[in-house]
Every structure is written in C-alpha cells, then in structure tokens.
Amino acid sequence: MDTIKAYRMDQLRRDESVISVSAIDKPSLFSTVTDGFDLLILVVSRDIERNYQQFHYIKDDRRIQERWITPKTLNELILHGEHRNIIYWILKGEILLDRDTYLESFRHKVLEFPGELREHKSADRILQISEKLPAEQGIHPGRALARCLQ
C-alpha cells in the first residue's frame, strides 16, 4: 500500500493547487469508513473546479477512491455533518502532504471542538429534531421546536 501512496504523492506534489493530502486505509474487512474501498485519498485543493470530484481506480489489486475538496467545503462538511465519515478521515488519516501545515492545524481545531462548532452542531441537532418530531408525532413544526428549546 505504501508504494501506491508514494506513486500518487509524486504526482500530487507537483500540483501547486494541492494544499494537503491524507490517506485513510480500510481499518477492517467489513468497514464502511472508506466507502468500501481499500484506500481513500483525501485531497484538499484550492482549485474550485475540482471540488467534490471523485476518482475510482485499481492499482496493485487495491481499490482506491480519491476525493477532492476545497478548504471551504471541508469546513462546511465538518460544521453541517453532511458526510458521516469526514471527521474520522481528518483525525485518523495519514497526512502525506501538508503545505503550510493546513491539515494538521485543521485536525487540532476539530479535536478542540471549539465553542462555535459546538453551538452550530447543537443548533443543527435541534433543527433535525424539530423537523423529525412533527412527522413522527403529528405535531406542528413550530410547536416541536418550542418543545425542544424548553
């Protein structure tokens, strides 16, 4: 697996738009953390046109997924929890390239779970509950939100 990472890093290192690269190995046979792939490569790039791009390929009999995102998108994914595994990828991924220590700093920020992130996550959770309860219990959405805030 290290030869695969080294091969890809040689290519990505030459790309000036690439800020950071992290590699996440599949932790166990049936794990879904890497979306079923043997290796997930997360590329943080300044190139907006590559944002949300995904590439799937096989090298040395390993199934690989490569995901490209911008720093703005990474922040949004963490704040809104749109992708269930993103925090795992940030905290457990092997940092292969990190210009200006961007990803390392971001990892520490996530570990600290700052107040603004905590407040945002709490507000998102309340909103999710307020949208879910009415459907389950036949309650008016405004009343459900008021009930959650009490």
Q: How does this structure look, described?
A:
- The protein is an alpha+beta fold and 150 residues long.
- 48% of the residues lie in helices and 23% in strands.
- It is built from six helices and five strands, in the order H-E-E-E-E-H-H-E-H-H-H.
- It has helices at 2-13, 71-80, 86-92, 102-112, 115-137, 141-149; strands spanning 18-25, 39-45, 54-59, 62-69, 94-98.
- It has a five-stranded mixed β-sheet, with helices on both faces.
- Helix 5 packs across helix 6 (141-149).
- The longest helix has 23 residues, at 115-137.
Give the DSSP E fraction (strand runs of 2 or more residues).
Answer: 15-25%
Categorize the overall geometry: globular
CA gyration radius, whole angstroms: 19 Å
The biggest sheet amounts to: 5 strands, mixed
> What is the β-strand count?
5
Average per-residue pLDDT, rounded, comes to: 81
